[in-house]
Fold ATP-binding cassette domain-containing protein.
Amino acid sequence: MENLTKPLIEVQDLKQHFKIKGGLFGRATQTVKAVDGVSFNIYRGETFGLVGESGSGKTTLGRTLLHLYNPTSGKIFFDGEEISKENYRNYAKKMQIIFQDPYASLNPRMTVEDIIGEALDVHKLYSTKKERRDKIIELLKLVGLNAEQAQRYPHEFSGGQRQRIGIARALAVSPEFIVCDEPVSALDVSIQAQIINMLYDMQQEMKLTYLFIAHDLAVVRQLSKRIAVMYLGNVVELTDSESLYTHSLHPYTQSLISAIPISEPSVAKTKQRIILSGEIPSPINPPSGCKFRTRCPKAESICSEKVPEFREIESGHFCACHLV
Ligand SMILES: Nc1ncnc2c1ncn2[C@@H]1O[C@H](COP(=O)(O)OP(=O)(O)O)[C@@H](O)[C@H]1O
Ligand SMILES: [Mg+2]
């Protein structure tokens, strides 16, 4: 059961700024503000959705939560305890990630048995060779693969099967929290539902908590009770999925929702598609004030002058927009 009183993950004003070489001859240093002050809670047993177009900072945020990148500033708590530079290794077993690209995330020179076994080795989760092998086969079966496939290499599998291997690897250490970073974006539409259903079943069986990242709201909606919308390093809106669909407040969210295809013709007729002009700006030199204002159909002069505060508009519904 979901417990809405005690967060498993707490994120407070988290920033991830990358220093890169830029300018003429690469002599200047530039700062990429990939995640630029983000706060939210994820409760035990829930699927927390994170959406936003490519380049908004979703992957960076997910990886920073797991300390795959050291945060530039801000705080991350797991079950009430702060994760720090000193202690983050203690959380490696509790927090796992499923990567977006099942082709790039599995070592091509390792057999499936070794890929999954590596996770067991790192955390010493067996006492005999036989126990190790039994665990690996059990995990393969759990994700719909079989013992005969254990000796094969990643290239012998389809995209969907590779993602199953990635999921087995994440589950090998019995984590409590999993960042699912666009786990189905690279897969055929026909395979996507299988993987999503499997992730859902695992969550029920193993009482997992997910951060589920997608650039597509329709995918996130299937799994998530609460959804955060990210734009250029910031969460601009956060609420439960029902109210996000029925009365989103932020113009960016509204444009994302208007882009979801509707199969019902009567609804489709009344729905107006909001098309954003231009590309997402660079996180090196983001626009002043509200970062969305350069593409916002409703922008006014205040939007370029002041950063909008991320505030609770209704109970549980947060939004960062001057015009709301
Ligand atoms: N290691 C890195 N070094 C420098 N810039 C990065 C790095 N990783 C991501 N970025 C930049 O940070 C921004 C956010 O990227 P990312 O987190 O991958 O977004 P998303 O997952 O939403 O597509 C992008 O502009 C990207 O180019
Ligand atoms: Mg990404």
